[in-house]
Task: inverse folding
């Protein structure tokens, strides 16, 4: 069944089936699910790592490690919102790459606007959708079927 689903996806042909394809493992959906988890619970380090490594943000492992080493002060929690905010407030001597710094600033600007906007408070689904669109989520999709997968999520 998997080869048929892949061919339908490649052709951009939508399909409806029950329990054929798990959406949560689809590459276009994983960042959306992780974003939901990260926004729901800011201490979900695994979800933040998925979002930050996804095409929506695009941080390298080296940049993520530099942020942890330079701003985490020996903690093991990886409170990513706190680390990102600390970096944006004072990039100082962080060993993050220039590309990584630009990606963090872009992400943090969008995330902070969303977090501080009273209109975006409320429904988690609205927050996730707003953040996904603001980060250019549609540019990461290959075909209409992927957009449908994201919307279904």
Result:
């Amino acid at each position: 069944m998997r080869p048929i689903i892949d061919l339908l996806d490649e052709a951009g042909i939508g399909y409806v089936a029950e329990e054929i394809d798990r959406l949560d493992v689809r590459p276009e959906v994983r960042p959306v699910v992780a974003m939901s988890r990260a926004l729901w619970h800011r201490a979900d380090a695994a979800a933040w790592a998925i979002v930050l490594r996804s095409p929506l943000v695009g941080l390298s492992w080296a940049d993520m490690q530099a942020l942890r080493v330079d701003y985490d002060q020996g903690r093991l929690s990886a409170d990513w919102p706190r680390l990102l905010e600390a970096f944006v407030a004072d990039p100082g001597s962080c060993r993050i790459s220039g590309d990584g710094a630009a990606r963090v600033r872009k992400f943090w600007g969008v995330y902070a606007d969303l977090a501080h906007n009273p209109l975006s408070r409320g429904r988690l689904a609205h927050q996730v959708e707003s953040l996904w669109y603001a980060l250019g989520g549609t540019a990461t999709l290959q075909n209409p079927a992927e957009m449908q997968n994201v919307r279904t999520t």
